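Possible race condition, two jobs.
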Amino acid sequence: MVLLKLFCILLVIHHGESIRCYQCTSDDGTDSCGVYGKFDTDRHVPVECQGDEAVTPGTMCIKITQQSPRGFIWDGRWRQVIRRCTSVANTGVTGVCNWGIYENGVYWEECYCSEDSCNSARRIESFHVVTSFISTIILYYGFTLFY
């Protein structure tokens, strides 16, 4: 049981290290940020979120997608993708995507994650969120049952 507690503590401490996220925006007029095609991880290098290269310092990654309300991509509708570091998730939870529609009809989606380079995917799936949650439960109940 002591080894299990030590493992859980080390797992939680690991999350305190600085995270690395991809950083790009589709505002430059190219598809380098994966707006319509696959995001090319070979062209981009993840930046350290607490470092000088990060446009927005933070402790997690975010991928933001916005799309105009017109019917088809080919009829003039625009789409924008932003990948970067962030410090606060609007929901307070990482590993999830939230979406909605602004009053002007623009669709938006924000996906948060807390693993290195995790904002490269189309949708964010986070294994460490689950392991952190389980570790916290084990630590809590482990300490309350035996002390």
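Job #2 (started ~2 s after job #1):
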Amino acid sequence: MTPIVPCVRRGLVAGSPRWEAAGVVHLRFSTLVQAPTTVAFDVARALGRPWRAPLQEVESRRPHRDVYAGGPGPRVVHTREFTATGAGTRVEELVDWDAGPLDQVVLRRRVVRAMRAHLDGYAAAAATRALDVVQVVGAAVVRGDRVLVAQRRGGAFDGRWEFPGGKVERGEHDLDALVRECQEELGVRVEPGAFVGEVVLDARIGGGPPGTSTMRVWAAGLVSGEPAAREHADLRWVGAGELAALDWIPADRPLLPAVRALLG
């Protein structure tokens, strides 16, 4: 991920608490973490929640969502959702608790104070942990209504298709790595565009445990040069209707719906 000083952009989406007739108060917090979804999720789980009473797990879908709930005292339900973006992982946290009329203002202040302190520490910890995780970037190079695909040569996925790309070097920005990989693999200069998506990689990447690294893919346009298969067996420009018929490596196939959308 981007090698910058760990930071957090946070916000209370609603300027004031919202409660229903049953006395349930809702607060929502949004945090942008400089880490892939896997790291953001794992660090959040390791740090727990900033509540004195332990909560029980209700739902966990790594690396997208988890829900914890419990008491004693006012019942708390704490939901977190993790979404990949081009700038990192956006973490949305919704805190619901049961509160009587006399507790609403006092509890709100306590919850906001606890969450803000918690999110500062969490964002810094996740960004630091991300520096030790090897990431992979890919480019959906688009020209008109077609996208460039590359056929693997050698290895376990010999003959299967993928989007060009490779590993991000330590201290390298994701988009700088994408531009460098296209130059090395294809002999072209590209301009990164919209973020396409992120996929969790099951394999060990850079010696890390399986399921920690992700592949993050951006659309890209050709700036100069004509693609050449320097490291691949073959290259093709294909349209949206041809993508499904190719024999894709497992990591790239989940990105096909988003790539079709790029092609119109």
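The helical segments are 37-47, 104-130, 174-186, 256-263.
Logs attached separately.
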